[in-house]
Amino acid sequence: MISVARGQPRGIINEVRCLDVRVLSKGGWLVPGVLSTWSWSGTPKVSMLISATTDHVKVDSIPGDKSRAVQQVIDLDRTACHLGGHRPWFICPSFWCRRRTAKLYLGDSFRCRRCLRLAYPSTRENATYRALRRVQKVRARLGGSRSLAEPFPPKPRWMRWETYFRLQEKAELAAAVYYRGLANYFV
Length: 187
Known about the structure:
The radius of gyration is 22 Å and the shape is elongated. 25% of the residues lie in helices and 27% in strands. Strand 6 and strand 7 (86-91) form a beta hairpin. The chain is built from 3 helices and 11 strands; from the N terminus they run E-E-H-E-E-E-E-E-E-E-E-E-H-H.
């Protein structure tokens, strides 16, 4: 169970089961009148029955499942897209929140990230590992290996030289921070 009291350590999003309205919509689970099953792997395995109407989604845990029972009605909102159609959103079921969100997380019931006080994994990283992630992101964007042991990737054909030099400088500065942090760690 996730603690939501102030001053308590925050959980991380990756540690909590998530229900994503975009995945449900693409998979056809939000079609009114359709009853479908949603399950998460892991220990304990959690399975849910999902039924939708135009205005809400009903989520019930499957009988016989060893996890705690969850029965909840989650309201849906839809916004118009610029090129036609609509985009579905969950409305956070918390009484005091009612915020529009794409993902709901399973604590004692489904709620949004803010209500459960969940943090992103990057907020737990120190400066050294944030710098490493920045270098790897630039190298991947240039189509090269994420490994710092490999040579820096060459400029892609489609990229302007100005952009390439800017990214190269950004990667060099982040690599310097990373190596300085490693040196401080081993001293």
